[in-house]
Each structure stands twice: as C-alpha cells, then as structure tokens.
User: Fold this.
Amino acid sequence: MTTVAPPPVTQASIDRRTKLFNRICAGVLVAFAIIWLVPILWTVDTALKPNAETTETTWLIHHPTLESFRTLLAQGDVWNWYATSFITSALTAAATVIVASMAGFALSRMRFRYRWLVFWFVLIGIMIPQQVLIVPQFREFSAWGLLNTYWAVILPQIPTAIAVFIFKQFFDGLPRDLDEAARVDGAGFFRTYWRVVMPLSRPVVSAVAIFTFVWSWNNLLWPLLVMSNPKLMTIPVGLATVQGTYGIRYADTMASAILGALPLVLLFLFFQRRIVEGIAGTGLKG
Amino acid sequence: MERRTLLKGTLAGLGTAALAACSSPVGAGLAGTPLDPGTVDYWNLFGGGDGVRMTQMEDGYRQANPDSKLQAVTLAWGNPYYTKLTLATVGNKPPNVAVSHLTRMKTLQSAGLLAELHPEDLGRHGMSAEMFNQRAWQAGLVDNRIYAIPIDTHPFVLFYNTDICGKAGLLDEAGQLKPIAGPDALVDALTKVKQVTGQYGATHGINGDSATPWRLFQTLYAQLGGEVLADNGTRVVFDDAKAGQVLDLLHEITVEKALMPGSIDYQGAIALFASGAAGFHLNGEWEITTFQTAKMPFSMTLVPNVFGAGGQYAVQADSHTLVIPRGGTRDKAQLDRALGFIKSMLDQSMTWAEGGHVPAWLPTVQSDAYKKLTPQSNYAAAADAAVYDPPGWYSGSGSDFEILMSSAVAGVEAGQLSPAAAISQVRTKLSDLASAPSPV
Amino acid sequence: MTTIVETVSPEVAPVTTTERNTQPGHTRPALLMLAPFLILYVLFIIGPTLYMVLMSFFDGSLTESGLGKFGGFGNYAEAFGSADFWSSMWHTLWFTILTTPPLVVLALFFALLANRVARGRAFFRLAFFLPYVLPSAVVALVWIWLYTPEIGLLSKIVTTFGFAEPNWLGSPSLAMWSLAITTVWWTLGFNFVLFLAGLQDIPRDLYEASSIDGATPWQQIWRITIPLLNRTTALVIVLQVIASLKVFDQMYIMTSGGPNYSTRSMLQYVYDLGFTDLRTGYAAAASTVFFVLVLAISTVWVVLTRRQEQRF
Assistant:
C-alpha cells in the first residue's frame, strides 16, 4: 500500500498469492504439531516395550508387551490413587458448581443490601493466589484433624471466586422475562434458580464442572501436603512421590504416566469442543 | 444423550469399583478411620543396591511371617523423605515402622514425632542395648531414652584399585594397602598412583554433590579434633585453623597438583575409578555393589588417618535406624508386629552387610561369616571411630547443613574459592542457621 | 500452571448505577444463597490469608500447635537479609522471563498459522492442547525420560547431530532452561486456544477489503491482525506471568529445586522452609511477601479485564 507504483493487482494474483501463503502456513504448522506430539508418542512407544529394551533409544519395538501396565495395576496403590483422585475431583466439581452458581445467581438477579460490598469481597478472591496459602491452610486442617482425609483436598478447592463470576456473567446474559414470570407465578428465588435458570445453563455448568474436575485432578502442591499416606494419595502425588522398584524400569514409569493421564485424555477427547469453547468463551472476548 | 448415559454409567461403575476394591482407604479418606490395622506399613528411602537388598530382606520377613502383611513404600532420599515422614506423622497417618538416619532422628525426636521404645518391649523380641554396636547405640539415645534401633553404621571409606596400587608399590605382601599416615604420605601415595594411571590419583564426587565433599572434610577435620557446632546447633564452634589445615591439603591435591579432579560429579568420579583413570576413590561403602558389578580388581579399607597423629582415628559416618513414628502403633498387637519386623531386619544383617554397611547388630558382626566377608570386614573398625554430624535441627544426612558445607569444600577443590574465602562463607551461613529460632 | 479455572478471565460486568437499588425481600434469600460460598470462602481463603499475616510475626513450628513465640518483624528481617530468599525470588523471575516470551509469541504464531488453515483444526487443537490437560506429574515423568543422559530421546537427537550431550537437568546453568522447554511444551495450548478465539472475533471483511487494496498476507497480519489482537495479547501476557510466578510442580518433581538450589522457586522455598525445616512462622513471612507480589500483578489483570465502558 505504500509502494509508489503498485503493480496491477488482479483478483487471480491475489488468490494465488494467498493460496501459496496459506499452504506454507499449513506446512509449518503441521511440522510443529508433529514436534508437539513426539513426547506423547515416545511415551506410548516406551510403555509398550519390555523394560530391558528401553535403553536402545529407538522407535522400533522388538517385543511389544503390556507387561508394564499389568505390573502396575497388580500393585494395589494405583487403584487407591485412582479412588482418591476420582472421589476428590468429582466431589470438588459438583460442590463448586452448586455453591458458585447459587452465589452467581444472587449477584446477578437479586437486589440485596451490601450487594456492592459482597461483589468486591468476592472479586478480591480471584486475585488471591491460593498456592501461596499452603502454610496457614495446612495449620488449619492439622488443627481440625482432617489431614489425610478427602475433605482436606476438597474443601479449600470449592470456593473458587472465578467460578462465581463465570456463572454471574452467564446468568446476566439470560433473558430476565423467564425468571420474572416464574417469580410472578409465586416461585421463590431458590425455585427460580433451580427450576428455571439452571436448566438453561447447561453449557456453563458443564464448562465449570469439567474445568474444576481437571484442575482438581491435576493439582499437585496441596494434595502433596495433606495426603501424605501413600494409600490415600492422588494420582499425581503418588506418581511424584513413590519410587518404584529398582533397576531399569523406564517402561514401567511411562506406563504409570499413561495411567495417570488416561482419564483426563479421555475426558478431553469426549469434551474437546466444550473445553476449548469454555476457555475461549468465559469472558476473554471483547 | 448418549454421552450423558455413558458418563453416568462410567461414574457409577467407578464408584462401585472403588468401594469394592479398597473399602479401607476410601473409608479412611472419607471418615478418617485407621488404615489396615493388621499390616506392617514400612517406609524407607533406599535406592540402588541398598534398595535391592532391602527388598530381599522384606521378602525374608514375608516368608518368615506368612500371616503378617507387609507393605513397604520407598520414597525419594533426603529432605523429601523426612518431609513426608513429618507430614504423615503430623497428619495422623504415619507408617508403623520407618527408616531414619541417626543424625536426622534427633530432630524428629525433639519435634515429638517419634514413639519411645521401652527396654521391656524390646526384650520381649530379643533386643537389648548390649547387642548393638555401642557407638551407634549411644549416639541414638536421647536423655538415656531409646527412640531408634540402629541397623548399621555406614562410614566414608577408601576404595582402591588393587592392580594400580600394586604397580605403584603401595600394597603389602598380602595384597592389602599399606597404611598411609600423615598428609605427606597421602600426597606421596596419590602421586605414585597418578604416575601409574597417567591421569589421577583419586576421585570423589564434587560438582553438585551435596554430601561427599562434606564427608571427606569432616573425616579429616575430626581427625584434628575439630568440631563445627555445639549446644544443639545454636552455637558455631568452627575452628578456622583446623579447617584451614584440611582445606589447604585438599587445595594442594586438587588445584595445585591435580592429583584429584576438582570438577567432577558423583557419577563421573565413579566412572573414572571404574575405568582405571584413578587408583583411589572416596565414597560411602554402599558403592561396593557398583564396582562388584563392574568386575574390576578393587578392595576397600579405612580412609587413611591423615591428621590423627597420636593414633586417634576418626571417620565421618552415619547410621540407618528403624523408628516407630508417634501414633505409628496404636495398640500392643501393632507394636509387637512392628518390633517383630525390626527384629527380622536385624536378623538379616548379613544381607545388609553384603551391600557394604557395617552391621550394628553384634551377633552378626561377631559371626564367622561376617569376619570372612571381604572387603567388608576390612573397615568394620570404622564403626567404632564413627563421627556423626553435629546435632542441630538443620543438620544430618541430606540436610541444609551438609549442603552448605559441601558447597564450600567443593568450591575449594574446584579452585573457585580460596580456603580462607570458603571458611568465611561457611561462618556466615552457619551463623545465620544457628541464630534462626529453632522450630523444635 | 496447574490451574485452569483460575486462569480463565472474569468478565466482571460491574453493577450499574440503576441496579444498585436495594429491593425489599431480596436481602435474606440472597444472603442464604450466598452463604455456602461465603462461608467456605472465609474459612479457606480469607481466613488463612489473615492467619498467614498473623503467623508471620511469630516463630511458629509445624510440629507445635499455636503461633509460637512473638518475633515482631524478625522473620521479615531474616527473609530480606537471606541470600536463599532472594535467589528463590530471582529463580522465579528468571523462570517467568524464560517462559513468558516463547509461550506468548509461539502461541500467537501457531494461532495465526492455524487461522489460515482451513482443514485439520481438530488435529492442531489435539496436538497443541492435549499436553495442557496432562497432570504436571505425568509431564515431569515424560520429560525426565526425554532428558535422561545417554539413552533419552532428546540427548540422542542432540548427539546424532554431532553436538556434545547437554546435561539437561544436572547442570545448574542449564536446568532452568530445560524446565522452561518442558513448560512451553506443556502449557502453550492454553494460550493457543485463547489467541484462536481472539482471531475469530476479527471480522472477515477487514481482510477482504485490505486484500482488494493489494495487501499481502504478511501485511495483513502486521497491520490488521496484531493490532486488533492487542487486548487478547495483553491478557495472555498477564495470565502467563501470574501462572509462571506460581511455578512449583516442574521443579519439585524434575530437579527438587537443584542442582545446588539453582532451580528452587519461591513456592518451593516456602515449602522447604515450612514443611522440611518446620519453620511455619518464617515460611508465612516469605509467603506474605510473595503474596503481595502476585496480588499486585493480579490486580493489573483484573483492571485489564474490566470493561472500560462500564464503570462501577
């Protein structure tokens, strides 16, 4: 546009130029995507080898085997870790959805006293880095005798201020006529929330539920502190803490990595669109 | 809809599976009930050859006690291990029995994390004070009370390549290393070996090694009678003159005369010795397995008495002990199971000794089988000359104290610090730690 | 970067003046519906925050109940005078400096490319975003294996090209770079998705108009896309800085802060001092200092996400 004598531009030349450019883009991107997949493929490749074969550093597998998976699953602790991870993540997700959506509903729909005060009070919550609170939180749960119980993992993860704002924002976008009609029909606030608003909020409910589940599943620092007994550890804590038996066992380690990741990978494959839209949709636009 | 049904089905299935497969941990997680009261939960920090031997001993216990369930867990060595043990004890779910270094057990005890062991309970399982190496036993007592059962002493030792030392004329007729006494003799021996190997006299781990430089320093410094801390770590009694004497010698054999590589990591130091590029190697005795596996001609002996001219010998060491964390045994049956396990470990001391450790259990030490075990029995005397890390809440194996001492000593050996600079660095850091309020 | 929900930006739609009026009969039910959240929030977030500040003035111990002996500002004085405290602070900043530019620039680059590719979106999303949903422990195990001396895949690739094998995690000068590489691989997908969403909001006709004016694709990117993405980019940067500052997992598992403490981050310093050295009072003081730092940067984030046109 700044050239002094622009060459004659035809539609065809633009198309050709753009097409070529796009093709180069695609090529570069595919190359990077493959680089990004290499660690994952290498993990799977290693896990399918016998342990002794892993020192060869080759993609070839001479004797493919599921032995490593069998060994791991035969040891009891992996199942205990799954149990802890599933129970704590599921309960955290469920509780977060309920607690945060009620608060979001109140902030979105109700005109109560001190509303601005509550609003700012909760807003501070999204700025507080929870990980920095490990010392006082640990003292708290230690004093209550709740260490090494699921509640120690679940309870501090429930009050997620950001979830309240995600719900509030979603509710703000819902037409008010519906719930006002319900109110006119004599339904209380809670009934309106539960019967009218929540059924319309499936996308945001599932987004918050999935995120909280993934976040809770992947949390390391806090469960590392409060779940110190190997029988009660979550999967990430168990993988990070407990050393296996001895000798060369890279295949076993990679198999354990796959077992730790598998539930989340499945969750991702099933809800790929929802997860990605959730990240993109919850507020960053605009 | 299909997805939802699937999800529901999965959750329901997992729920029942979880409950059926392991009702006990789930119960503990939800309601804080005790975990498997009938098993022996045992935590240790052994990797490598020690790990292999410990697994053999655990299997030995299982065979001898088919009715008792043993669950052994291995955690990462050093600070991470002690952090976990502390957290689990504070969190009311400690193991029944745990390994602790003798030098770390004092801090655990003063933090109130260990159960006291009573002589009458020990007696019931055939253990009493006089059956243990007295140095290790006494070092483990707190106000004459028992909190830990030592299973070994693991001194810092000298590995030597018998071929190379033979060529250097350092062996006697029996093929044993002739005693090396005094700093000049040490330099002389290293020089002779260097002439044979063409590269180095000796090696030990330096770069990024948070323990070996301290072990060597402490051995030589203690031979001079030097001490680092007093009054449970609240007072620094570091002796600049003695430390200077040790550091000057280390500086001489690394930086000045290149008899020892000054910039090499733990694995590299092992590799140089194993490949014959050095005739001596300084390390903990547990590396015996590595060199046996390498099928090289080597033997082991006490670290030379370099500075203890008056016949006074000292060598840095620590002991592995078995402890029962506070709340680790809730009733007599559990206590007896735990003590039975400890006794079983002691009874298998011979297996443990094969890995290089000097057993603390005298019935094994005095047995013919152990006396015939070479080269292990060559340095059994080290157990009686063992110098443990000074008491203090920040001291002990794998602690901040060892790390700060090691990094200063390693700095001298690598030529990055002068001995005087290293001493002042140690002084500054130690006084920071000593003046910090003790958490126990 | 273990948080997902936390890093999703709030669209804080503020209360407008007309909505501020209190309506009769709303207060009681509203407080009831807020109660579960507020109670948990006070118990587990606000309460501990205040307690942390209180603890920081005492010499508390992990194994003793209560606050311990009063020490005034002693813990703060010790922290500010401690070389370890400052080096952990520096490692945290250094990690942030090493990770933020590639995580922002590469993610933007990939998103720009992906935006031009018509087919295979699902594949790219899978490739770049899948690592992000993996637990940190899994990522760490995988990369420890890739970095393993001699037989690790990365070491092998480097030696195949004739270079000396780097001591990825074992060398104090290199370890932080290795952790940064791992982190870029792990968390890039999150920023990628944010940028993709931002790109989709740019109206197509802007491109069409400019290409009729003869703009090359390259010019379009520089003159239309990047300026219009400004807001997204600013947000991604701030989110990334916050996430990088809170790093713990990678170091804890892959190097335990070593070699020789060269990768110990601020959170690990707090962990070490509080739970290994048992000095909870001192750890609370170090936490408080760090807390203020992260809070300040988070404030920037909240200010950024607030819509300019809607003021409270």
Notes: The longest strand of chain A covers residues 242-243.
